[in-house]
Design brief:
Structural class of chain B: alpha/beta
Number of helices of chain B: 17
Distance between the termini of chain A: 10 Å
Order of helices and strands of chain A: EEEHEEEHEHEHEE
Strand content of chain A: 35-45%
CATH architecture of chain A: 3-Layer(bba) Sandwich
CATH superfamily of chain A: Phosphohistidine domain
Shape of chain A: globular
CATH topology of the largest domain in chain B: Aconitase, domain 3
Low-confidence stretches of chain A: none
Structural class of chain A: alpha/beta
Number of helices of chain A: 4
CATH architecture of the largest domain in chain B: 2-Layer Sandwich
Strand content of chain B: 5-15%
Strand order of the largest sheet of chain B: 13-12-11-14-15
Mean pLDDT of chain B: 94
Strand order of the largest sheet of chain A: 1-10-9-3-6-7-8-2
Oligomer: heterodimer
CATH class of chain A: Alpha Beta
Radius of gyration of chain B: 22 Å
Shape of chain B: globular
Largest interface: A-B, 40 and 41 residues
Radius of gyration of chain A: 13 Å
Number of strands of chain A: 10
């Protein structure tokens, strides 16, 4: 936990739950197919977060895109023990919501502030239902 | 969410554990979007993928128990189960599917039969099971991003982007009412004026990818597309779902609910207008494909989404009497039903004699090689330099085939590369 002043956000709990961890933030839509290594939970989408792990992290990205098989890929991440602790999206894609339901990952979207502007990779984040608390790095 | 008495009975476990968990899942999904009620669906295109099922509330034991106790789908349901059982021995060998996965695919085929699901084993089911006879606006439940966009855009059916929910809504016959099932979410947002003549399927694929990148998950309205073929429509809808996550596009004059511009925008104005010229198509190609003329090509992927019989005839004619270069791999993907047509009409033999392989399992979903499972755990493996006429195939190739250079061209350019082993 960090000592800085926490920032609070409120949104829609797509999957209700409590989790916390370090944030890893992608400023774009994400497709697990092709952009995440499912065996190791590593980001393989080109960009500043390339090579970083999503395992046990609070995974913040704009929304899902692409393959409808991503529901099953959240299951695969879980089976491989490398699923994120929580998911925070700007917009909730139904495929990724379903992935969060099956793998039982707390998920929040439609926040009162843009999480991509508030949360930076490395910040410490806690998700409780629709409530998000951010401790900046 | 309002639930009917029958919904409540399903939720209470009266019809067994799987139906109960299915309903719980659908209620959770509906709650995520503040759905007010459940609606009936009339058709489903689903995945089963039982080997991916986790250990939670929905699990394989529940699935098998339900199949044994006689649970059936409530609506006509088709599914995608790789088509490994029916494709040619050569294709089976080429897909390099590990024996344990092959067994799990066979197990799924058997489970599907017991649930009353028909395996079509294709990413383009609209080519082999035409459901356009449904009244405009019929609610369905579909997987496969490209097919979802096709059903909404070309046939005017209504489905969200579905995953496991497609199967779960098939066995309950129900789906939460949200997203693209509601009129207000089907209104066009951005207007794209196509000011370039689209000459080839590749142009439609590039245009779709470009539009998808701009609109993300919003509804684009596309003006200026005249007399597209089925191949063109499957190329554009599929690529919009790769560049972005487009579920519905209004192609004015083609999309049934968008015969006019006013219908597409629900009598409102577009938020923005974007002109598309050859410049945008070329920059999209350059963004996706880094291969240059004269460079070596090792792997050619056609049929993404799966080829129509007419595409196969075209490819066979280009290959007739020729041989592809030694060491070069040419995969032509199609539905098993269409592969059968190609076989009885003699085109499959022409393709195989030239050294190509007709198959139903592409690198995007191949549980063997190349495919994401193998390629992610074997970074040293590579298909080499890859060429395709599809932005989807090329977009996913670095991850699912560990490719090196990428080439995007017309079918003719791709076949030429297969024969010469070089691009251009």
């Amino acid at each position: 936990m960090q000592s800085g002043k926490p920032i609070m956000l409120k949104g829609k709990a797509c999957v209700v739950g409590t989790a916390e961890g370090e944030a890893v933030v992608i400023h774009d839509r994400v497709s697990l197919l092709g952009e995440i290594n499912l065996e190791k939970g590593l980001i393989i989408k080109p960009g500043s977060e390339y090579g970083k792990s999503i395992a046990g992290k609070v995974f913040v990205y704009y929304s899902g895109k692409g393959s409808s098989g991503d529901t099953f890929r959240y299951w695969r991440l879980q089976a491989n023990g490398v699923q994120p602790a929580a998911i925070i999206n700007v917009k909730a894609d139904p495929i990724h919501v379903q992935g969060a339901i099956v793998a039982n990952i707390p998920m929040v979207a439609n926040l009162d502030r843009n999480p991509l502007e508030v949360i930076k990779t490395g910040d410490y984040v806690k998700v409780e239902g629709g409530k998000v608390t951010v401790w900046p790095k | 969410m309002y639930l009917t008495k029958e919904d409540e009975r399903m939720l209470s476990g009266e019809y067994g554990g799987l139906v109960q968990e299915a309903m719980r899942f659908l209620v959770k999904l509906g709650d995520a979007y503040d759905a007010e009620r459940m609606i009936d669906i009339k058709y489903s295109y689903a995945y089963l993928f039982s080997r991916e099922w986790g250990k939670g509330a929905l699990n394989v034991e529940l699935l098998e128990e339900a199949a044994k106790s006689g649970v059936k789908v409530k609506v006509p349901t088709i599914n995608w189960n790789y088509g490994l059982e029916v494709i040619s021995p050569k294709a089976q060998k080429e897909a390099k599917v590990p024996p344990d996965l092959f067994e799990s695919v066979k197990k799924d085929a058997e489970l599907c039969r017991r649930f009353g699901i028909i395996a079509v084993d294709t990413c383009a089911p609209f080519l082999v099971d035409p459901m356009e006879r449904f009244p405009l606006g019929t609610h369905i439940s579909s997987i496969e991003s490209g097919a979802i966009a096709y059903y909404n855009t070309v046939w005017g059916l209504r489905t969200n982007r579905e995953g496991l929910s497609a199967f779960l809504s098939a066995i309950t016959g129900r789906y939460p009412e949200f997203g693209y099932h509601l009129d207000e979410n089907r209104k066009g947002k951005y207007l794209f004026n196509v000011e370039v003549e689209l000459k080839d399927q590749l142009d439609y694929s590039l245009l779709g990818f470009y539009i998808g990148k701009i609109v993300g998950d919003e509804v684009p309205v596309i003006m200026g597309i005249r007399n597209p073929g089925i191949e063109d429509l499957k190329a554009i809808t599929c690529s919009m779902a790769v560049g972005g996550s487009v579920t519905l596009a209004h192609i004015v004059g083609i999309t049934p609910e968008a015969r006019t511009l006013d219908m597409a925008f629900h009598n409102d104005k577009p938020e923005d207008k974007i002109s598309v010229t050859s410049k945008e198509l070329e920059s999209t190609r350059e963004e996706l494909a880094d291969g240059k003329e004269g460079e070596e090509v090792n792997f050619i992927e056609l049929g993404c989404p799966h080829c129509t019989i007419h595409e196969i005839v075209k490819i066979a004619k280009l290959l007739e009497g020729k041989k592809i270069k030694e060491g070069v791999t040419l995969h032509i993907q199609t539905a098993p039903a269409i592969a059968y047509l190609a076989k009885i009409n003699g085109y499959a033999d022409i393709i195989e004699n030239a050294g190509g392989t007709l198959m139903s399992i592409c690198p995007v979903l191949n549980p063997g090689i190349p495919g994401p499972r193998y390629c992610h755990s074997h970074p040293e493996y590579s298909v080499g330099n890859i060429a395709s006429n599809s932005t989807k195939a090329i977009f996913y190739a670095p991850s699912n085939a560990n490719c090196k250079k990428r080439f995007l061209g017309t079918t003719e350019q791709c076949i030429k590369a297969a024969i010469t082993g070089k691009w251009g």
